[in-house]
Amino acid sequence: MGIAPLLPGPLGFGTAPLGNMFRAIPDAEAAATVEAAWDHGIRYFDTAPFYGAGLAEIRLGEVLASHPRDSFVLSTKVGRVILDEAEDPAARELGEKGGLFEHGRPNKMVNDYTADATMRSIEDSLARLKTDRLDIVWVHDIAQDFYGDEWLARYETARTGAFRTLEKLRAEGVIKAWGLGVNRVEPLELTLDLDEPKPDAFLLAGRYTLLDHDRALQRLLPAAAEQNVDIVVGGPYSSGVLAGGRHFEYQEAPAEIVAKVERIKALAERHGVGIKAAALQFSLAHPATVAAIPGATRPSRIAEDVAALGERVPAGFWAALRDEKLIAADAPVPTN
User: Fold this and answer.
1) pLDDT single digits (tens) 18-41
2) What is the pTM (predicted TM-score) of this model?
3) Using CA atoms, how far apart are residues 54 and 124, in angstroms rounded to an integer?
4) Which amino acids are annotated catalytic?
């Protein structure tokens, strides 16, 4: 198990913003952003049907179709099937993520984690992405933030449906790896306790960042490392608030989060550190994490991410974060 050998490096590109998350993005701007990622050497791209009801997959596929398929790693997700009939994107029931893709395509989305829906989702994604194969498939959002008290029932459907289907596809060589892609720690802890099926990795969004990492550190990351289940960190900038944006957890950042970010930024400025560098390198410092996949909608952001990955961050900065109790005492930090 594990996906580290599959990945071309620690920095990938997350395409949620290309689904018109928060704002409507012109097609040309979306394409230029993906091309910028390619030009800066990024070769791992993650997407999902959920991102704008297929919009992100379509936009990503348009660009990647011009590059040799063997030259990049591609992951998408299952758990939602996109239909041809229309609905109001702003009126979708998305749990805590209401209105997230209200500027996306109006195609109706159906939540379905059964075996049949998993196969249909993969077939539809292949068509939208203009490709003949996927490298990694994540089971998407089977967690409390989307399903509330019903999440365990959804999880059980996925366990007997999507999980086993993906396990079979991996065994047949149709895909190279599978796992869960969620915004909560609990489904991943539950999955690590299963006798079968066994995932290769997890995509964990927003739960191993400078702003939120205590829970993941307690059990999930040590257990994942022990079982050789790699962690891809989604949302290393916590929905943008760690990179100059206004959002945290996909909503307007609350005052206490803004205040915490300001404290981190003050320490970063004192030590001559870019806050993007601090956020990105922190997320990658744990032995269980193998990649981070920040998203972007402007080409200039890609250059910033690449520079942030290579920036030297002095040990004194991490010590100051610990002294101010802005990171957990036992959180691994980069060593230069």
Assistant:
1) 999 888 999 999 999 999 999 999
2) 0.96
3) 9
4) 46, 51, 77
